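Changelog-adjacent note: as of this version, every example in the card shows the full chain rather than a window. The one below runs 174 residues end to end.
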Amino acid sequence: MKKTLLTVLFISIFYIAISNIMVKSLEIPDEAIRIRVVPNSNSSEDQSIKNKVKDELQIKIYKMLKETKNIDEAETIIENNLETIKSDINKVLKKEEYNRHFDLNYGLNYFPKKEYKGIVYKEGYYKSLLVTLGEGKGDNWWCVLFPPLCLIEAEENTDIEYKSLVKELIDRYL
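Full-length structure tokens:
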């Protein structure tokens, strides 16, 4: 009985330690550049346009930043390519025959609090590339450009599910 209790205790401590490390690794660094695309509304058309703009920007900006080594270099590349980014957004909107205006802002922009997969991202003003389509009243998409947390998705485009063997064992037997 003592061995079983010690084993469960050890597994529990190990699981908590690993969970804390995993959560820490998912936090956004202080020196990061985000991207946010806010659609006109939550209509299916506006959300679809948001996703098409997002997909285009992920691919293009990934190519721009994939060799970037630090935040200063990333900022310079983004600042020097704002007209190209604007042109890419225009192309998507024209192709989709979407006749609403958009704004592109690079600087400190507001991000609301968000919970995603059990992690809470604090609200606040963050260095970011903000694309606002039309009135900008729909549910937004955002991610981190640098370090390239969401841009990796653009290259890989695969779904990965991480599992914890320890958690599965605890869930199964407790």
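Structural remarks: Residues 2-24+165-173 form one domain.
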